[in-house]
Task: structure prediction
Amino acid sequence: MSANTAVAEKYRNNFLKEIEEQVEMGDWVKMCMQCGVCSGSCPTNFQSAWEHPPQELFMMIRAGKREEVLTSSSMWNCTSCYNCIVRCPRKLPITHIMHGIAEYAHRLGMAPKMQPTRFFSGLFWKNCTHTGRVNELKLSMGLYFKDGFVQGIKNGMAMQSVALGLVKAKRLNVMELFGGHKCKDQKGVHAMLKKAYEIERSRKTAKMAG
Amino acid sequence: MADIKVAAYICKGCGLGERLDTDALVKTAQKDGKVPLAKSHEFLCNADGVAMIKNDIANEGVTHIMIGACSRRAKTEAFHFPEHAVARANLREGVVWIRPDTEEARETTQEMAEDYIRMGCAEVKAMTAPAGNLNTGGSKTLLVVGGGVTGMTTAIEASKTGYPVVLVEKSGALGGWAGKLYKRTPVHEPYKSPADTGVADLVSQVQADSNIKVYLNATIAKTDGAPGRFVVDVATESGATHTEDIGAIVQATGFTLYDMNKLPELGGGKSPNVVDQAGLEALAAAAAEGDGVIRRPSDGQPVKSVVFVQCAGQRDTTGQHLSYCSGFCCNASIKQAMYFKDTNPAVDTTIIYTDLRTPGNGEDFYRSAQEKGVIFTKGKVAEVLPTGNTSTVKFNDLILGDTDAAMVDVDLVVLATGQVANSGINIDALAATAEEEGAVEVKPISILNLTYRQGKDVPQLKQGFTDSHFICFPYETRRTGIYTAGPVRRPMDIAQAREDATGAALKAIQALENAELGRAAHPRSGDLSFPKVRLEGCTQCKRCTVECPFGAIDEDEKRFPVFNESRCRRCGTCMGACPVRVISFENYSVNTVGAQIKAVDIPDEFSEKPRILILACENDAYPALDMAGMNRIEYSAYVRTIPVRCLGSVNTIWITDALNAGYDGVMLMGCKSGDEYQCHFVKGSELGRTRLSKIDDTLKTLNLESERVRDLEVAITDIERLPEMINKYAAELVAVGPSPFKGF
Result:
């Protein structure tokens, strides 16, 4: 039984309770009064990036629309500008709840795989934990080739002049593609992260087992 | 009238002396006003000026005083001569303050002032000092109809103030609706949980109070008389009738919940598991007697899920149900959801609302419910389908845009139906049914059983709630000395009802005290004048008895009008209505205004000086004009303004007289009428307008243009608009040309 079906079974139709217990700051969801100030304040909403604005997500949670919420790309669009938190008359930590829901969806494996924010987050994490330093060249190239090889070449060509400019200004070292610079105690970093993973995993497993 | 002596006093203060030729004004008073004594004074409202007037009263035998100074609304304490007839010529706000201080304006400004002096002298001669109504009663007892929270609070508050109370309750116990509640919405910090209703405490206070006489299982069989001398027959269950002498009445007859059987689409009446809020209170009270678990009525199983349907049969746009919001039900549903959550947090409680309205500190209460896990869903319930022991609630989810949202296996559905006022017979609807038979549904049972000519109960405005001047006089009904409080007046909750009750108790006490002194209630508070009728001239046309907005006039066996002075508010609507002009007040009559109209000097048609008569309501229009003066907003020097008590008191003879005398136009300024009325006498401006709408016929017979009479709806805030309208009208009249009646 996957993690997802296990939790779904556990909470049956009480999705609100699931969010309250599993999602960081999830216990705030019930306090939303549907005024919509968060949606109106969201800068990304001007590009209609949000399938469901925050207050709608909260209502969907209350209405038990589990699948739709967890597979939604909406909370991944949050840019952490904190406008909604500042303006929420009910003092809901909306930004944190958005990240909380996104993290939970990711944990259950339900988050949209190729959602750019999610993809980039994964890429960034892998990139910086690998050597203990961020390799900018590999990071941007990874992002270029997100949607396949052809698209990657196209993206690279489009950014060609910028890249050459950076090379000329000695802001970009092509040699970074091969290995690149590392932090001094790479093993130590890995050991530290491993421990952190362990702690978090045990905490979350306990939580999910309830 | 034989031995009157008129004196005219002209003030030179406030710039009047510099702007006007006061010596000429004194001469005008002597020559045109024909007053034997005319004086001017540097500063009339100071102690010396007032002493001069008092000296003349004492030593010169002055009986009638004409003061040419500021507006009649100013310096009322200085110029207070209650024993004498007083007229005021408004030279300050009405003349110098609205005219430019220029050489070319001087002549017209002086003419304006002289006319006001002539008008004041003419008016005061037609007046007598009001002696006060002698037909009074001195009962200090308050009758409270209804023994709910409102009624009991009224009784307790009145008793504490020192007035005996008779409380009549239809049922066998005090408490009313609140008495049936398990708990109430909290009114104290921290507003988090349902609170005790406090009804038991109120009941014991009433019972312990020897000043409060309670009739249970009793109704009002008859209410006769007027404020200060009501005679009320209280019919008790045994069939016995007790007669009580009453000073004033507070009607606190409350409400009935809208019948949920009228909402079959919401499952009303279809299943015992669909209840209204009262039904749930009963279930909660029953549960509290037992193990605290609220059970499903159909099979006694504990309720595991409950849905509250807000606005059930309320805020209805189809015209089938209540169109208004009752204001209390959102908080009530939140409270009821807590009944479940406080005993068992596992019970699913959902409140489906379109707009959650939680007045007072309800916002904290709402938040507390959210913290307790009550689910709030914004949606409109379309259908409740009871099947077996559960129901399906179908609704349109307004946030998610899901028109087919549904909640299934709901154990209990609570419909938040609204408040319907227990206001007795709709006397206006009765009149309507007489015309078009059986069209209007009439509540059969009268509450007060008034013996008034206009009907057995107090008039209603909209939706069956009793009429009251919403902005200025919320407790006043259209029956003087009878006050309504609580949900019979407008939908409200317990906290608002208690506030209402206290207010109404104080207003009722004020009314009975005023009634004993023969004085008017608001808005002419303290007025001692009252309508007098010359019955030998009466044609029994019944216009006064029909039109009186306050039901003050009855009819005797011979169908002559019988005035109940204590019920009268002194608006003068009867006087305006009377076609034979036999109704008058001592200080306000067809003559006092008519004499002013005739006193104005009308220049001939070649002078290019038109004359416009303004009849301005003294409650809103006249103060607005005064304020325009205070703000030095200029307007035409050709207007002559006469304040009237109400547009309803305007007798058409005044307009005919004015046009015959050669006025070029007449402007009528009255308050807004209709459902959203602002008239201080409720119906006065409406009745006045209806009457004046027929003025076109008069104009036709005089062969005059319809532009010569202008009706203007005025609010007290029209300080800038009013001068504009006056100037515009003056310009229009120039286009129409001078009146052909000049010089006759």
Observations:
- The first strand of chain B starts at residue 6 and ends at 11.
